[in-house]
Amino acid sequence: MSALKGLVIVEVAERVCGEYCGKLIADFGAEVIKVERPGGAPTRRIGPFKDGVPGPERSTLFAYLNTNKKSVVLDPAKPADRRKLERLLERADALIDDHAGPLHSPQELSDLYPRLVHCLITPFGQGAPADYQQARPINVINAGGWAYHSPSETPPDKPPLKGAGRFLPDYEAGIDAALCVLSSLLRQRRTGQGQAIDISEVEVQINRADTVLGRMLAGEQEPSKARTAYDMGGPATSFACADGFLYIFMTTKAHWKGLVSLMGNPDWVADFPEDWLEFHCTPDRVALFRQHFAVWAKVQFKHRVSVEGQKLGVTIVPVNSAADLPDNEQLRHRGFFQKVTHPVLGEAIYPTASYKLSATPVQLHSPAPALGEHDGEAA
After folding, report:
1. Model pTM?
2. What is the pLDDT confidence band of residue 319, given thresholds at 50, 70 and 90?
3. 237-318 is classed in which CATH architecture?
């Protein structure tokens, strides 16, 4: 028995944020009916593509975002298709939308379908100027502050960065949207009433800026225009090694003692007090440490030195590439990747979820649907 078996979700989303919200819910067993306009969702035409060749059903992004869903093609501009969509909404528990100009306003949907949970995800939330709602992920992550202060310890002369991947703000907003949908469905079960959910992608980003906002709210740091104003001030950063990069983060005497042991107690550590990370962590000393450590790290192998360092209490990890992850022992142990066979892409491993439910685990039981594969269900 899947956790969400019996729930019917209509998804008219056409961006990564809404599709990821629907994916999270579908992977727990809900029936998610993806309503696509003629020609299909735009994500079907976004790469990367299988073997680098664009074409129908070859988008690996779409394949990932739409496991366990059904596809129905409807054109809301046609009265017959509009009636089909209305019939779907009559039996649906929730609607997921990520359009700046939705088919129905939240109030209209509430009047038509009072038990429907309506989740609407937009860059700046409802009520924002229309021009703002055309923002792309790179705009969202900058407007929310993340590109300015992340990654930590960025040199002040470097420009702000977008963040990890093209769609980080979309995935973050999709997670919050799924949480809100499920919370609202619990209320629906108790009261029989739906509600509208208004997700602002920018506000999601601001909520993730916990270190920056937290230190300011606690009075530990005054707001500043300096990009490094909220960093820890220690030697944390990435270092090149023999087979890639490793990342180290140190703030305590225990960290330092473990690292000294890991390195075999080289002569240069005598220039550093044992408690330097806690009481003598000056910019000059940080720079000197990085200079020495970079020489040592250059001939190390990232996985081996990380395992040995962690046993000594050193907070050191390999900087994994996407190609490294399927071979990660812990991810394999947890069953994080599952095999899915797609009619065009073939058999491949797909990421699942970062949480494990003992009675109702995530199951990828079907690949992303072909365009209009389930049209018969919207008669």
Report:
1. 0.91
2. very high
3. 2-Layer Sandwich (3.30)
